[in-house]
Design goal:
The chain is mostly helical and 133 residues long. It has one domain: 3 helical TM bundles of succinate and fumarate reductases (Up-down Bundle). The protein has five helices and no strands. The longest helix is centred in the N-terminal third of the chain and has 30 residues. It is found in: Membrane.
C-alpha cells in the first residue's frame, strides 16, 4: 500500500480515526521537531563558544526549568515520532500477527525504558551538581 501524501488520501486510507490522527501527528510533530532540533543545535553549538562548554555550564543550563522542559519536549516528540514511524515499518514488514505482536511489545518496552531513563536523567539534574558559577 502506498502511504498517503495528502489529508484526503489519508482520510480515504485510514481504517480508524486513530490512524488518521497518527498521520496528522507525524506531520505536525515533524514540523515542530525541525524547529526544536535547529534551536537545540543553535543553542548548543553556535551560541556557546568552545571555551564556555564546560560540565558546570551544561549542568547549570539544564538545571533551569525552561531548558528541562525544552529538552524533555525534544525527547518526547522525537521518541514518539520515531516510534510511530517504526510502527509503520513493523506493520509493513512483519506479516505474521503473533510475530508482529512480540516485535512491537519488545520495541515499545525498550522505548519506554529509554524514555523513563532520559526523563529521570533530565529532571534529576540540579544546580548542586555544578560548581560555582
Amino acid at each position: 500500500m502506498t502511504r498517503a501524501k495528502t489529508f484526503q488520501d489519508a482520510k480515504n486510507q485510514a481504517h480508524t480515526n486513530a490512524e488518521l490522527n497518527w498521520w496528522i501527528f507525524m506531520r505536525v510533530s515533524g514540523l515542530i521537531l525541525v524547529f526544536l532540533v535547529l534551536g537545540h543545535i543553535y543553542m548548543t553549538f553556535l551560541q556557546v563558544s568552545e571555551a564556555d562548554a564546560t560540565f558546570d555550564a551544561v549542568v547549570y543550563k539544564l538545571s533551569q526549568p525552561v531548558w528541562k522542559l525544552y529538552d524533555w519536549l525534544l525527547l518526547s516528540l522525537a521518541l514518539l515520532h520515531g516510534v510511530n514511524g517504526a510502527r509503520y515499518s513493523i506493520e509493513d514488514y512483519v506479516r505474521n500477527r503473533p510475530n508482529r505482536f512480540w516485535v512491537k511489545t519488545i520495541f515499545y518496552t525498550v522505548v519506554a525504558i529509554i524514555f523513563v531513563i532520559g526523563s529521570i536523567g533530565l529532571f534529576t539534574i540540579s544546580p548542586e551538581f555544578a560548581g560555582p558559577q
